[in-house]
Amino acid sequence: MASPHEQDLQHPDNLAGGMLFCPLALLPEGWRRNVMLRWDAAGTLIDVRADQTAGQAPQARGPVIAGMPNLHSHAFQRAMAGLTEVMGSPSDSFWSWRKLMYRFAQRLQPEHLEAIARHLYIEMLKAGYTSVCEFHYLHHAPGGAPYADPAELGLRVMQAAGEAGIGVTLLPVLYQYGGFGSQPTSAEQARFIGSAQSLLAMRERLLQALPENALRRYGVAPHSLRAVSPAGLEELVSGLRQQSGGQDAPVHIHVAEQEREVNDCLAWCGQRPVQLLLSLQALDARWCLVHATHMDQAEYQAVAASGAVVGLCPTTEANLGDGIIDAARLLASNTRWGIGSDSNIAINLRSELRLLEYGQRLHHRRRNVLASEAEPVVAERLYLQAVAGGASASGRPVAGLAAGQRADFIVLDGEDINLAERSPEQILSALVFCEHDGQPIRDVHVGGRQVVRDGHHALEDSARRAYRSAVAALLKD
């Protein structure tokens, strides 16, 4: 069944596409005045020109910037926010958090996941994320038995995304083992476990039920090198290339998130995780290395040369105590990167960018670490690079306000007290580095279709009620 937003794509009034006159817009090359955006019926920008006159075109009610791709999300974890912030032991870490997450995941039913994802994706849209890469590893019923439809939970996520109107790249996750060297899994991981062939069959089922279109794509995600064997990784990637749309489909993987992961990998095979991955696969622009927090100089150089994208999730990485990537080195190497909300404890792209820079300031003990002589405005450099890297990771044309890209954009509230009276060069700095009361975002368009108007989404109230009901059921003793 087509979602309301997919039906809208085919509405007679939309067959001619649309246009918007922007008195001020941030294009990939920088701020420009009097920009006319034109898009076709499919929601693709066909013309972006500065120094135009408005004529009869609708006019944006504030500065316009590209929508941000969110390159890493675990939707169900949104309902866990705040549940793990009590000390279990003096050595609390990612690994103790993971045990709590596994226990929470055991209670989720399909209707819970759909309600959580729908509400989450509406939150993302209102925050300026216009697309999301969903790293989807909850596949089976509690106990590990498959659903009658093996893609049941993936289809629930896609239905939620379609109703919200957000662009989505679904990444069904391969999870085989409990640790490096094909260690056995635990009972709590039973809902995740599968084979490369079952994962590829799931992707085929998703393609059959909800084919790829302008709003959705399907890739795959080997969970991590500790959870997928070298043979399983090769079988998955090779099999993907044989499927519909698989030749350029995204491949995402968690890698080098924690120091213990690095040490365990060294103990098992004598190589660091990123080093091992590079020896197993020919990485390219289709790959996204999520976190990649702990790399040495050779790994930084090799990842940059490969063209792969690094997925940074500063809020989650801070929450889990993962460590701080050397983002100054990452940017200096011209590695592509983007941002993700990961565990979804925060749905705020501005705070992700702010924390990325602030982590570097604390580490290097200086300011404006992620600026450069060519790009001295930190927020502007970070925003444009995150959009471009996120687009590559999503496998969708959402790289900014340029012809051939999707008409995904945000209209900022130009009357917001923290944005008003700012020069164009100061707007993104005020957006990212000045904490606001609420979101200074007025309107959001995805593929030219307005999904947020005056800060509100048409389904937000019903989605909030369903989300609250799901959380109540999950937290019930």
Summary keywords:
single chain; 477 residues; alpha/beta; Urease, subunit C, domain 1; five-stranded parallel β-sheet; four-stranded antiparallel β-sheet; 15 helices; 37% helix; 18% strand
Number of strands: 16
CATH topology of the domain at 4-66 and 405-461: Urease, subunit C, domain 1
Helix content: 25-40%
CATH superfamily of the domain at 4-66 and 405-461, called what? Answer: Urease, subunit C, domain 1
Major sheet details: 5 strands, parallel
* Mean pLDDT over the full residue set: 94
Gyration radius from CA atoms, angstroms: 21 Å
**Structural class computed from helices and strand pairing:** alpha/beta
Instruction: Outline the low-pLDDT stretches.
Output: 9-14
What coarse outline follows from CA principal-axis ratios? globular
CATH architecture call of the domain at 4-66 and 405-461? Roll
Distance between the termini: 36 Å
Strand content: 15-25%
Total number of helices? 15
